[in-house]
Amino acid sequence: MKQPISGKPLAPLADGHTGAPPLPLLDKTRRFYPRGRDALFAALTLLGVAPGARVLVPALICDSALAPLRAAGIEPVWIDVREDFSIDVARLEETVARSRPAAALLVRYFGFGCGLAGAVERLRGLGVPVVEDRCHCWVSDAALLGEAAVYSLRKFIPVGDGGMLVVAGGPDRLPPPPSGEGDGHRRADLRFAVRNWAERALFGWGGSNPYAEGTVIGRLRGGGGGAAALDPAVAPRVPSRRLVRYLRSPAVSEAVVRRRRENFDYLATRLAALGIQLPWARCAEDEVPMGLPLIDAGGRLVERLRADGIGAYRWPGEELPPEVEAGGFPCASRLGRRTVVLPIHQDLGPAQLERIAERCAG
User: Fold this and answer.
1) Computed from CA positions of residues 49, 54, 56, 60, in that sequence, does the dihedral angle turn out positive or negative?
2) How far apart are CA 102 and CA 56, in angstroms?
3) Domains in the chain, start-ordered, CATH in brackets?
4) Calculated CA dihedral for residues 113, 119, 124, 128, nearest 10 degrees
5) What does pTM read for this prediction?
6) Tens digit of pLDDT for each residue in 51-110?
């Protein structure tokens, strides 16, 4: 059995990379949450979205991300995406006029811009505040387009921390910071250590395939976490010491940005030569991709790759909201079933990327 290729790194990045400035991500304008969906609900709360209100949501999204909204009685108003993952501005205007949402959620799919600037500008003209879903993006000090942005930290770096909320306008708009910093650091570090040890004990040391169908981790990493009801009002948490070290390190920022772009370009070039359809052939200078998305017309690529220990997955796959599956959103429904995300994280090297390309060709 070949060494599994994970969609997430399990080991810290090596030292020695310099040149990138420290990220100003630990100041008073940020709050940290257990999950990205918790940060999303907090952002909408800060914008005054109350139970019974409506929020404009693109139909291409994970249903579990909306679980806190549903639990709080907030109604999603769906809008279809286009084939290039962008939002049609004319359709946006029609949907706003018809539903009068209290706010809008716009997604930067897989770390790409997706034409969000034009959509945000139009929504601002219509008086609709915007939360940017940057859960597929690397954390940075890039200026916000909307009133707030949410991130999912563990998609890029090996930490137990989940979501981060950033708001425009300064810390006065944020909920109070958490207390008990020392104990909070220790609890967060302990949670990650236990989880990481369990994964390594089950798979990292035994050489088994964590992505094979039927394994516990295989099912969890394959998506489909569901949208179970939960308490939506989750308080901010103290970030783990591990996260603090990563975000304060210029080496981490440089390595994540440079290696992911290089890995994306390498794998995209190989796949394009094989005639595989890619939504993005290259990433722009201000884009740091979470993974490499492709369109799987045959529908069996994920199973073939995961059987060989490669952590590919459909997005959102089984987590496409049931209202979208029911019809009326043809593009989101089609992309939701056919979009496959390949790993390109910063721990992968050319040999592993070449193996991914070969398996995609097979």
Assistant:
1) positive
2) 8
3) 30-173 (3.40.640.10), 181-361 (3.90.1150.10)
4) -100
5) 0.85
6) 999 999 999 999 999 999 999 999 999 999 999 999 999 999 999 999 999 999 999 999
